Amino acid sequence: MAAGALQRRRISAAVAVFLALLNVLKPASCDEQVPLVLWTSGGISLPAQAPPTAGHIVGQQQLASYLEKALDVGPHNVVLFLQDKMSIEDFTMYGGAFGNKQDNVFPNLEGALMSSSSSLVLPAVSWPASNAVIGQLQDQLDTSPLYMDPETLSQLRLNASSPALLVFRLPYGIGADLLSAKEILSGNDEVIGQVLNIMKSQSVPYTAIYTALRPSREAASLSVEAGLGGGRSLLQARGRYRESGREREKQRRVKERAGTYPPVEFKEGENSCILLWAKSLSVSILRSGRWEEHDLTPSTFGEGVTPRLDGSSCDKTKARLVLNYENVLNHRSFKLIFALSQRHYKVSARRWFTLDAVELEYDGTKATFNGSRNIYAPAEYSYRCESVTSFQWPLLVPRTSKDPANQWRVSFEDFQIQGFNVSGGEFSYASDCAGFFSPGIWMGLITSLLMVLVLTYGLHMIMQLHTMDRFDDPKGPAISVPQTE
Q: For 216, how many CA atoms within 13 A lie in the half-sphere containing its CB?
């Protein structure tokens, strides 16, 4: 009993230290960092790791060191709760940090920390480091992440000897007021409690991590809240500015879609290397049982729009076009990659190029769609298709059944691409994905063939009929036909 009380006092002290660290950090720098909490299931101890000093921001390499030491000894079934946004103020405002336990929206998280034998609290982690958590865990566990929800987890049977990386995405309302933010965090805590109860029922040891992709509090909002005078007018001005900004953005999109814009062009030196054009580029992700879509077209094409092509490359046999974006579906860094290659085929005695893969890179994770089986054209041509998707008449398919691409959808309308033999910055003759024999044409041909066969059979049967050469006279004797005739 004494030992248990001592253990509880130590954990309570750790929680107190955690809250103290939250309070001493500078509010002005909160837009650059997110908290991270790591703990293990009951009865499992991790090697002691010294927490960072107050005000220190944990970078990507230091975070990788923390995770590596924890996973070397701890369980390899990792449960990652990845919230869209989270800042230190979320704990201080809603975590009952000042003794108001009735206002605590993290009872399940606090209970998990209290029952855990080992826990690690990092109050300040740089957002690029938190964005790379999935990639670091994927490398250390040598397994692909599985994006789950509590219902799916209840049907999954885990094995303590086989590593698993289970990722649970938690929402955070953008622009929500204090009450709705509190409700969202309370709902996320309930999800954490459900997941931990399922893991406990399966008696599988686990390592849990709770962090976010980016901070929920912006420096601008903090400065407005901290202002002594004119706060209401400032908030109203910011609201009007956002409204006018949305209207201008909407008008710009309508104007761009109504007109024609040049293709994306990547040059190697002075020579054009890769061309890409589409009427629409969009991606969707499955969250909480529904698809959330994001249109990439306004950030890729249009007057005055210059997409970032960092990482693109090309040579005589391979081409790689990398489109870099920001803030796509709550992913701060997002890349859309087209990987092409060309080679000589002996059967056709000519060179062909293929779109080997379409890749999505986000937060240290890579989702890969294979396209080489369906998307190809002669090396001197460009490739064009009215619709290239991964879900309706798919030309792009996930690389494996466990690839993160199964949680994504991509859709390209009026799509055209050329990665080789580009001349003068213009597309070459297009090889269209629509073949000469469409499904409708095939149905018509097969139906016509069946009708011709039926008609031929009928004519053949009619031609087999013979006219009788003897007739029976009713006034004369009956005709006797011998059986031998």
A: 26
Judge contact between 32 and 215, C-beta under 8 A: yes
Minimal CA–CA distance to 181: which of 83, 81, 94?
94
Residue 324: strand, helix, or coil: strand
Q: How far is the C-alpha of 255 from the C-alpha of 302, rounded, in Å?
A: 9
Which has more confidence, 173 or 57? 57
- Selection from 124, 94, 121, 120 nearest residue 188 by Cα: 94
* Token pair 């909480």 in the structure block, residue: 288
Task: Answer whether 127's CB lies under 8 Å from 34's CB.
Answer: yes
Q: Which residues contact 347 (CB under 8 A, 6 or more apart)?
A: none
Angle of the 231-258 helix axis to the 219-226 helix axis, nearest 10: 150
Burial of 149 (0-12, 13-18, 19+ CB in 10 A): middle
How is residue 98 written in tokens? 């000042």
At 92, the amino acid letter reads T
pTM over 0.70: no
What is the rounded average pLDDT of the residues 461-468?
Answer: 85
Question: pLDDT tens digits, residue range 274-330?
Answer: 999 999 999 999 988 889 999 999 999 987 888 899 999 998 899 999 999 988 998
